TrEMBL record, chain A:
This is Uncharacterized protein. The chain crosses the membrane at residues 29-47, 59-83, 156-174, 180-198. The lineage of its organism: Bacteria, Bacillati, Actinomycetota, Actinomycetes, Streptosporangiales. Keywords: Membrane, Transmembrane, Transmembrane helix. It comes from Streptosporangium saharense.
UniProtKB/TrEMBL annotation, chain B:
The keyword DNA-binding applies. It comes from Streptosporangium saharense. This is DNA-binding PadR family transcriptional regulator. Keywords: DNA-binding. It comes from the Bacteria. InterPro entries: Metal_resp_DNA-bind_regulator, Tscrpt_reg_PadR_N, WH-like_DNA-bd_sf, WH_DNA-bd_sf.
Length: 209, 110
């Protein structure tokens, strides 16, 4: 754990090249402690007349227990009010949460960037957006790989497509008659051209070629 | 199974970032926040791009060393030899390519 006199606290091992991950057992413990402390602080806040400081700390613990999926970062800059610290910590932890376990190691870099920025909230939201972009890119890569796998074989490409096209032709025949169903033939030609175009563009070699 | 390196496309954003890497001293590393400041692009654009460039081997990332205990480390990036070479090749290809649809005002009058 790094305890920064400037007010930044992070749960990391400073000697480790990558931040340490919490085990499932540790995470459950953190969540349990978070919920307990939230309850204590909120009870105390209500008893003491909803003091902003205690309420804020309680909410911070609540947020941290919710985001305790691994490394937990608390931005605790002295120049910010407690509400702003909570908001900023939650934003950064949200970005890390969205980014996924494989990107937790970036936590330290993101934290120092947010701390350096003159507009930490805007930067924090930018990091959330970055995490969303990264996840969408991951999804795109996965879909592209699946598409390449399908296009690499005529069987894998035409069996599912043929089934869909046959279903469409039968459906059109039943609702509008054979005359309209005949017009699905150009669709088959269009699919064939599209598939060949994709194979050329992505440089996919068919099985057996 | 390891993921294949991502293919880098020369978009305006990619060129801005790579031009910045080319402009700075090779010994002088860049980091995410500094790149956002220098290029004027947001972190939502820069960090995913840095991740892709690093995976493709165009840039090399390392953790900052000799950091005072009181602050977290930055992730520092430098342009790798592969990146420099690939970028030069792609730029050359781009210059040599004629757009499919283009209108040249000089030729229009001929």
């Amino acid at each position: 754990m790094i305890d920064d006199p400037n007010g930044i606290v992070a749960w990391f091992d400073p000697d480790s090249p990558e931040p340490a991950e919490l085990s499932d057992r540790d995470r459950r413990g953190v969540i349990g402690i978070g919920i307990f402390l939230t309850f204590v602080f909120l009870s105390f806040s209500v008893y003491a007349g909803l003091d902003t400081g205690e309420l804020g700390t309680g909410l911070a613990f609540a947020g941290l227990s919710l985001f305790a999926g691994g490394s937990v970062i608390v931005i605790n800059l002295d120049v910010l009010t407690i509400w702003d610290r909570v908001r900023l910590s939650l934003t950064l932890n949200l970005a890390l949460r969205i980014g996924g376990r494989a990107r937790r190691w970036q936590a330290e870099d993101w934290q120092v960037a947010v701390e350096t920025s003159p507009h930490p909230f805007r930067y924090g939201l930018g990091l959330v957006l970055a995490a969303v972009h990264m996840r969408l890119y991951d999804l795109g890569t996965l879909l592209l790989r699946a598409a390449c796998w399908m296009l690499a074989s005529n069987h894998r490409t035409w069996w599912p497509l043929g089934a869909v096209l046959a279903f469409a032709a039968i459906n059109i025949h039943l609702s509008q008659g054979w005359g309209s169903a005949f017009y699905t033939l150009p669709t088959i030609a269009a699919f064939h051209l599209g598939i060949e175009h994709l194979r050329r563009r992505w440089n996919i070699k068919r099985k057996g070629d | 199974m390891t993921d294949p390196p991502p293919k880098i496309r020369l978009t305006t954003t990619t060129r801005l970032v790579l031009d910045l890497f080319m402009a700075v001293d090779p010994e002088e590393p860049l980091w995410g926040y500094r790149i956002t400041e220098e290029t004027g692009l947001g972190p939502g654009t820069i960090y995913p791009l840095l991740e892709r460039l690093e995976k493709a081997g165009w840039i090399t990332g390392s953790w900052e060393t000799g950091v005072p205990e009181d602050r977290p480390r930055r992730r520092l990036y430098i342009l790798s030899g592969t990146g420099r070479q690939e970028y030069a090749t792609l730029r050359q290809d781009r210059r040599g390519r004629t757009p499919l649809w283009s209108w040249n005002p000089r030729r229009a009058g001929q």
